[in-house]
From TrEMBL:
Homodimer. One of its GO terms (molecular function) is N2-acetyl-L-ornithine:2-oxoglutarate 5-aminotransferase activity. HAMAP family: ArgD_aminotrans_3 (MF_01107). It is found in: Cytoplasm. This is Acetylornithine aminotransferase. Belongs to the class-III pyridoxal-phosphate-dependent aminotransferase family. ArgD subfamily. It comes from the Bacteria. It holds the Pfam family Aminotran_3. N(2)-acetyl-L-ornithine binds at R142, S281. Pyridoxal 5'-phosphate binds at G106, A107, F139, D224, E225, I226, Q227, T282. Pathway: Amino-acid biosynthesis; L-arginine biosynthesis; N(2)-acetyl-L-ornithine from L-glutamate: step 4/4. Its EC number is 2.6.1.11. Its main location: cytoplasm. The lineage of its organism: Bacteria, Pseudomonadati, Pseudomonadota, Gammaproteobacteria, Oceanospirillales.
């Protein structure tokens, strides 16, 4: 096989088939636009699944990467490094947290959070305090532990036996949580807005009651803000808008704006349970990733940028509503900031993938959140003209699907 020319078909020849990529290969990105191998241009409403928070190849991030790349790439955690220390300072100054652990991904950040919660429970309450309660339809990663904590059976099937001591209850159902939580519970973990589960926001009262139940049962509250964090909802982290402060928070995706990095944030007293040797990561705190994330965090923290997220939300949601007034295709449009889900009407349930393919043919890229929901997670600074153009292309795609019924 030649190693020169590669295309979508090469994936099927050389890659493990756990993904089914779209029938194009993007080769260049700038802002909110992508170009494929054939030179076709696309408007990007997907944003790398809420990762490219500042679009593709943002000049300030390219500069941060190039500058650090000429200085220092890797040390391992035998040493610390300046970009990691500076990023940890930024995160502790801007959030409730006092201590930070760096990893390479959201799954690794969650793995650390769940391990820390169990270790803290063991250290302070003994061996019997180990249970983690999560919510149905949640998603927390693909490691064996995180896929077990996640509330979607399809991601666990075939990998059994999975770790024990994990309980799932319905989201936004405080009664179910009250029945499940006990002296065995070391932590409750939740997404402020369930992303992969269909873009389902937490009810504000429910979020407050979860916090109180954790306090009543001496359990830690873990917020998975991997998808909602880094400005995605119009706040630096969504807990800030909810009036609820977690004990542990995980962040990734938009934190590095495309450079792989994850972080677990917590208080100093909880962090003590991760003493020397308790957990680790060879590449966690990598100078390249931390340099990029540090610059990204500076930009995303700008109050004007966060206000702009709300403005773009309004434009995108209003545009989807106008499309729906003509096409009658969406049952509900929900979400916050630039994490938006448009649930298809029941007659089109299970067909979200068809809309992604049709949209791609019209030059617009979007996502699914399950088979019934179109998901939009574009750049937080997407030009408003691109939003309008992308919505027009989407409506053309919807019209063609409906015409082919």
């Amino acid at each position: 096989m030649s190693t020169g020319q590669v295309g979508r078909e090469t994936f099927d020849e050389v890659m493990v088939p756990n993904y089914n990529p779209q029938a194009i290969v993007p080769v260049r990105g700038e802002g909110s636009r992508l170009w494929d191998q054939e030179g076709r241009e696309y408007i990007d409403f997907a944003g790398g699944i809420a990762v490219n928070a500042l679009g593709h190849c943002h000049p300030a991030l390219v500069e941060a990467l190039e500058t650090q790349g000429r200085k220092l790439w890797h040390l391992s955690n035998v040493y610390t490094n300046e970009p990691a220390l500076k990023l940890a300072q930024q995160l502790t100054q801007k959030t409730f947290a006092e201590r930070v652990f760096f990893a390479n991904s959201g799954a690794e950040a969650n793995e650390a959070a769940f391990k820390l919660a169990r270790k803290y429970g063991h250290d302070h309450h003994g061996e019997g305090k180990f249970e983690i309660i999560s919510f149905e339809q949640s998603f927390h990663g693909r490691t064996l532990f995180t896929v077990t904590v996640g509330g979607q059976l399809k991601y666990r099937q075939g990998f059994e036996p999975v770790p024990g001591g994990v309980t799932h209850v319905p989201y936004n159902d405080i009664g179910a949580l009250k029945k499940a939580i006990s002296e065995r519970t070391c932590a409750v973990v939740m997404e402020p807005i369930q992303g992969e589960g269909g873009v389902i926001p937490a009810d504000p009262l429910f979020a407050q009651q979860v916090r109180q139940l954790c306090d009543d049962h001496q359990a830690l509250l873990i917020y998975d803000e991997i998808q909602t964090g880094a400005g995605r909802t119009g706040h630096l982290y969504e807990y800030m808008a909810m009036g609820v402060t977690p004990d542990i928070l995980t962040s990734a995706k938009g934190l590095g704006c495309g450079f792989p990095i994850g972080a677990m944030l917590t208080r100093a007293d909880i962090a003590e349970s991760f003493g020397f040797g308790a957990h680790g990561s060879t590449f966690g705190g990598n100078p390249l990733g931390c340099a990029v994330a540090g610059r990204a965090l500076e930009l995303i923290s700008d109050p004007q940028l966060l206000v702009g997220v709300g403005e773009r939300h309004d434009q995108l949601v209003e545009g989807l509503r106008q499309i729906n007034s003509r096409q009658r295709i969406f049952r509900e449009i929900r979400g916050k900031g630039l994490l938006i889900g448009a649930e298809l009407v029941e007659s089109w349930h299970g067909q979200a993938g068809q809309f992604l393919a049709a949209a791609r043919e019209q030059g617009v890229l979007l996502l699914m959140a399950g088979p019934n929901v179109l998901r939009f997670t574009p750049s937080l600074i997407m030009p408003q003209g691109d939003i309008s153009e992308g919505l027009a292309k989407l409506e053309t795609a919807i019209g063609r699907i409906k015409a082919s019924e």
